[in-house]
Write a structure and sequence with these properties.
Length: about 110
């Protein structure tokens, strides 16, 4: 469900929802090793282009994640994202603005 207003949710429900979402979000990243795969790619590509400079591993990880944080909506292939949302999660975006999403059965 896409809510119209944050005020539809009281503080107790908001806390419950955000904890549930954060738990699922963390689990998805950890189970799929998304951060680890990205950092390994970052290091490998830097080595491949002879563009990795001597520093601590922690600093390299921080730099790679900082680069990742520079992404914005223009970096998202909307059609590919919508296809994933539909095929993997059974949700279809029927309107971008305002956002409308329906649950579909496959």
């Amino acid at each position: 469900m896409v809510r119209d207003d944050i005020n539809e949710v009281n503080d107790e429900e908001f806390d419950r929802l955000i904890i549930s979402f954060d738990t699922a979000f963390d689990k998805y990243f950890k189970d799929n090793q998304l951060v680890e795969k990205y950092v390994a790619f970052y290091i490998a590509e830097r080595l491949k282009y002879n563009f990795l400079f001597r520093q601590t591993l922690v600093d390299i990880i921080r730099a790679s994640l900082n680069d990742l944080a520079q992404l914005n909506e223009d970096d998202c292939n909307y059609d590919a994202m919508k296809k994933i949302l539909k095929e993997q999660y059974s949700f279809e975006i029927i309107s971008d603005d305002p956002l409308e999403i329906i649950c579909i059965d496959q």
